[in-house]
Each structure stands twice: as structure tokens, then as C-alpha cells.
Amino acid sequence: MLVSKIQFVIVSTLLLLLSLLVSTIQGHYSNTSTTAAAGASASPWLKKITTNWPRSPWPRGCRGRPWVCRRKEEFSGKWPDPFRQRWRCCRDRCVDVSSDVYNCGLCGIRCPFSWQCCGGFCSNTNISPFNCGRCGNRCPYGVRCLYGMCGYAEPDLPQGPRPPFPFPSKRPWPPRPPFPFPPKQPWPPRPPFPFPPKRPWPPRPHPPPFVEQ
Fold it and tell me: Which carries the bigger pLDDT value, residue 156 or residue 111?
């Protein structure tokens, strides 16, 4: 009884594997025939592209040929604009280094978070009075830039009369003192040399002459 059960399980497994193998072979032959029919009707250009795939006949990026990133605006004879586009080849792709936050000014220079690249320099547009809110937005003189807005939460300045120019008015300079300052005074007469004058020495006492007795 046990042997018959084992034989039945083995035969069932073999039949299942055989059916799976037959279905796999039929699918493979059907795909091959479809590809062959499509290849027979394809054009020579499509065959060439399919043969070179995934390698394209021409490189896609700008590596090795950075001149492809140059634009016509860079060769114009106009006055140079600090915010004009400047295209460079960075990591095999053309980028505008005057406004790209990941390549600001030069390739690889990344601006901090919430900063913008203005003319090739990283600028905090939230507080910068020269680039307030966006690049090139300059606040008036004496007005602060806060949260990207000029004069945020500040009262309007009164428009009074302008002071005279130049401010303050120049005053006449006082007369200059005589040169040299202070003026030199005449020196007093020099004392006689040597100072003090030497006095004559008193005569030296002589001992009495020695007389032999």
C-alpha cells in the first residue's frame, strides 16, 4: 500500500515537470519566430541602430568636447552683463554656472540650502539688500531686506527736503601756524670753555731742608 502511494507521487511529479518543459519550449520558439519576422521587415537604418545598441554611435554628453556648451550670447559684442548666462560642461552635461545652485561660478560649488546663485555667487536672498527675494532686486538706500522683502514691517520713511550738497558744508580752514612749530628761539650765549674756569693751585709747602749736625 505504501509503495503504491510513493509510485503515484513520483509519476505525478514527472508528468507535471514534463508539461512545464513543453510549454517553455513552445514559448521560446514563438518569440524567435516573431523577432525573425520583424527583423526581415525592418529597414537597414533600424538594423544598424539595433546592432549598436546600447552603445550609441555618438556620445550624448559634453565630455571631451566642451565647446558644444557655448552659446551665441557669449560671443556678442555688448557690454558684459553680470547676470548673463555662462554655460560650462560639468559632469558630462551643459549647465549655466551663473544661476545653477549646484554649480555656482564653477563646477562643483554648491550653494547652501535656500540660497540662490546670482551672477556666479551664492547669495542669501532672504536678507541680501542687493538680491532681495530674487537675483538683481536691489533695495533702496537705508532699507533692510527681511524675509525676501524690502522694508518688511518697517514704517515708510518721510520724504523731506534734501540736505545741501556737499553735506556737511565745508568750512574755511584756520590759518596754519608758522613752520616749524613752535618757532625756534635764539640760543643763549655759551659759557667760557672750560666750564667752570680753572683756578690756580696754591703753592705746595716745602719741608725745611735737612741740616746735619
Answer: 111
